[in-house]
Amino acid sequence: MQTAGMEYLESRFMFGMVPGLDSTRKLCEVLGNPQEKFKTIHVVGTNGKGSTSYYLAGILQAHGYKTGLFTSPHLVSLRERIRIDDVPIGEDDLERLILRVKAAAGEASLEPTYFEVLTLVAFLYYAEQGVDVVSMEAGMGGRLDSTAVASGEIAVVTGIGLEHTEVLGPTEEAILKEKMAVIEAGGPEGKSFIVGGLSEKLLVEARAFAASHRAECLVPRIRDDIELLNLGHHYIENASLSLAAAERFMARDRRYAYNDTLATAMLKTRSWAGRMQKLTDESGKVRVILDGAHNSHAVRRLVEALGTYYPGQKFHCLFGALKDKDVGEMLKLMAPYVSHWHITKTPYPRFRELDDVCAEVSNAGGVVESADDLSREYLEAVMESAAADSSTPLLITGSLYMIGAAIQLLRDRLGGLEFFRGLEPSSNEHR
Predict the structure, then answer these.
(1) Which of 143, 150, 302, 369 makes a 20 to 30 Å CA pair with 180?
(2) Which CATH architecture does the domain made up of 277-415 adopt?
(3) What is 4-267's CATH number, 3.30.70.260, 3.40.50.300, 3.40.1190.10, 1.10.150.80?
(4) Domain ranges of the chain
(5) Global pTM?
């Protein structure tokens, strides 16, 4: 039976994404401005926000800070989005705080979106629990994203590509400025941007924007001494940004001294779920690689990692993608690394139809089979087929919604998914 809080939250789906801060600011005022009771480090960008936020939270936690983490979307349960020291918000707290936001919205005669409600719940939870600092991933853009109301002094920019151009602007330069505007112009002490993954042209724009906002623009070196559980050089890049952001935050905050040895040791233990993540069986053998590569940019990073860690090898690939993605380009990029395609989808309504994807796959080459839905039986059959045919793990990719469904089916049998055990599945917003 659905709770009153979840019923209210899911009623917010109808409002979609509405850029702007007016509703969030008004509701924060009604709720006592909880966002002012903790410090915030914003993380913005096109790809890599989640892993950067996750690594950053771990580093801060290791140094002694009571640390919040806010990310989106979730893979299995929306409780994943709001964490303190790696522990997801409890069901009772989530329900109670959603209803508190609902009451505030009624008092203010406002209709907040799904994402705005969750952002406000996070603000309330972190304030109640006495969190020191929050590693906060922006939802879309920056300037008009509801997370910007927290108004931190540091923003991490992970990289820029064309996305949501109808809202953020038609060029990468325009999108960069929208994202960097997640923090306001600095005061006497200024503010800080930690920037990575930008072309030389965009880096010039970033520095100019920072100067216009009386902020410093730091471009940290990509570390060659970082060990991570997630595969791929792009995660090294994201972790390098996280280390620089943590060091800059502690230099400002001065409560704890930054310890690089402690920070890099923490990174060795952290695996951002569903992104170039290795899942092992009881013997320690890697059986599955999960990667929510959902666009061509992310697939390029995926195949780069496969070429590095599995040179010359081909994979069985379980694949499903959403209707608004350039599936043809994604499959073309992956084709040299795939011997067998297993095409499926979940009940999420935006998945592309199987016949359509299979036709695209046939053009890309390789053996193709499909199933109407990602059931436990089908997933087990695909895993057995992959194990019998090759020593390489099964690759599951194409959509974060596909990854979430796979995690639900695998979480009790493979290592690496312990965090998700006991979390009840919940719907994602349609974004």
Answers:
(1) 302
(2) Alpha-Beta Complex (3.90)
(3) 3.40.1190.10
(4) 4-267, 277-415
(5) 0.94
Amino acid at 324: D
Q: Is the dihedral of CA 44, 11, 4, 351 positive or negative?
A: negative
The helix or strand, by DSSP H or E, that contains position 24, with its residue range, turns out to be: helix 22-30
Residue in 123, 112, 39, 46 with CA at minimum distance from that of residue 81:
123
Rounded CA gap, 351 and 372, in Å? Answer: 11
DSSP state of 429: P
- Please check whether residue 152 is in contact with residue 190, taking contact to mean a CB–CB distance below 8 angstroms: no
- Partners of 266 in beta bridges: none
Provide the 3-class DSSP secondary structure of residue 398.
Answer: coil
Question: What does the chain come to in residues?
Answer: 431
Alpha-carbon 254 to chain mean position: 29
Percent of the chain exceeding pLDDT 70 equals: 97
**Residues ≥6 apart with Cβ < 8 Å to 291:** 274, 275, 276, 277, 298, 302, 395, 396, 397, 403
- Confidence band for 332, pLDDT divided at 50, 70 and 90: very high
Q: Which helix (H) or strand (E) holds 286?
A: strand 286-291
Residue 288: which H helix or E strand, with range? strand 286-291
The token duo for 139 is 């939802």
Distance separating alpha carbons of residues 197 and 57, to the nearest angstrom: 20
Token pair listed for 110: 């406002």
pLDDT digits (tens, 9 = 90+) for 253-265: 999 999 999 999 9
- Across the beta sheet with 133-137, the strand order is 87-88, 82-84, 67-70, 133-137, 39-44, 154-157, 191-195, 215-218
Among candidate residues 331, 304, 297, 282, the one with its CA nearest the CA of residue 231: 304
| Residues 19, 36: Cα–Cα separation, whole Å | 21
- β-partners of residue 397 are 291, 319
Cβ atoms within 10 Å of 214's Cβ, excluding its own: 13
Query: Which of 20-34, 159-173, 272-286, 366-380 bottoms out in mean pLDDT, i.e. has the lowest?
Result: 159-173
